[in-house]
């Protein structure tokens, strides 16, 4: 059986929840750990296991705010895993919600999207001031 | 201690925030937090505040990774960090650290090679670097950080290297946002 992830976020690491039953992986917050592969290793493992062992769709719901370059590299690896699955006929989707006042995260999400052929939704959220 | 001279130097150079000493992971977070608060209180545009913060993180994490890789002791693993505003209101993020001279020269060359690149060329360089296989010995996206800082800057990055009597050199990098 695969263990779902439920990591509380910290100042420099996002909160991460996976739901094997629902086929969903969610992350919220800032991500700038010094060693991103240490943090995201289990996340990549979960995605690989889910894609290999299940045939159901996978949805990534993101509310990431800031990513350092080392986190960007890991996210690209995760998006690449989804792309490979999608090319193999799998239903996958990314939905990235961002604070409407912060264009930078939308620009980053757009750059990721350029390299993905699966549904990749970037949606502004209105946040109370 | 002559704090007044220190204070006047800061004022003359429009330094809003400055740190000098051994830099730990938690200090990077604490100073980053203070920097974000400061920028918010200054009503900096959210995108500029984000860029200043991002450049600060890349610079300081690069310094930490370098010190770790070189197995520097606490005294050498120090960083000098300053965030200032220039006369035109642009933010300047600077960080400096001790390096081996050959490493410093490579860094300066890397920074200078980015200077002539326009936004489109920097984006291509960024994506290329992102796709490069991860070096197992390096635990960070080294190299990517410099290109990322250049992309977030409104002017080319400025790097300098000053030789020290110890045989090492002091590398400093400034990004203007």
From TrEMBL, chain A:
InterPro entries reported in the protein's UniProt record: SiaC (IPR018530)
Annotated SiaC family regulatory phosphoprotein domain residues: 9-123
A Pfam entry, by short name: SiaC
The protein, known as: DUF1987 domain-containing protein
Organism in which the protein naturally occurs: Halomonas icarae
Automatic annotation (TrEMBL), chain B:
Pfam families: DUF6272 (PF19788)
Domain of life: Bacteria
Protein name, entry field: Uncharacterized protein
Species, as recorded: Halomonas icarae
């Amino acid at each position: 059986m695969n263990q779902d992830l439920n990591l509380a976020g910290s100042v420099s690491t996002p909160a991460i929840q996976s739901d094997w039953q629902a086929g969903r992986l969610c992350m919220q917050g800032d991500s700038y750990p010094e060693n991103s592969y240490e943090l995201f290793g289990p996340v990549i493992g979960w995605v690989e296991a889910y894609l290999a062992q299940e045939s159901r769709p996978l949805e990534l719901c993101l509310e990431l705010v800031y990513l350092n370059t080392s986190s960007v590299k890991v996210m690209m690896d995760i998006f690449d895993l989804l792309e490979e699955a999608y090319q193999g006929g799998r239903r996958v989707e990314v939905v990235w919600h961002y604070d409407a006042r912060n264009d930078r995260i939308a620009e980053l999400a757009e750059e990721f999207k350029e390299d993905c052929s699966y549904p990749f939704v970037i949606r502004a959220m209105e946040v109370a001031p | 201690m002559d704090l007044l001279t220190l204070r006047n130097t800061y004022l003359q150079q429009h330094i809003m925030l400055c740190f000098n000493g051994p830099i730990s992971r938690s200090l990077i977070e604490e100073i980053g937090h203070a920097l974000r608060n400061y920028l918010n209180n200054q009503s900096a545009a959210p995108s500029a505040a984000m860029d200043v913060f991002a450049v600060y993180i890349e610079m300081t994490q690069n310094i930490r990774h370098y010190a770790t890789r070189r197995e520097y002791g606490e005294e050498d693993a120090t960083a000098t960090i300053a965030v200032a505003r220039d006369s035109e209101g642009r933010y300047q993020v600077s960080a400096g650290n001790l390096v081996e001279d050959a490493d410093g020269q490579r860094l300066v060359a890397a920074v200078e090679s980015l200077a002539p690149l326009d936004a489109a060329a920097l984006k291509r360089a960024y994506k290329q670097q992102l796709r490069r296989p991860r070096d197992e010995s390096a635990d960070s996206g080294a190299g990517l950080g410099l290109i990322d800082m250049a992309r977030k800057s409104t002017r080319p990055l400025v790097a300098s290297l000053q030789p020290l009597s110890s045989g090492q050199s002091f590398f400093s990098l400034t990004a203007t946002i």
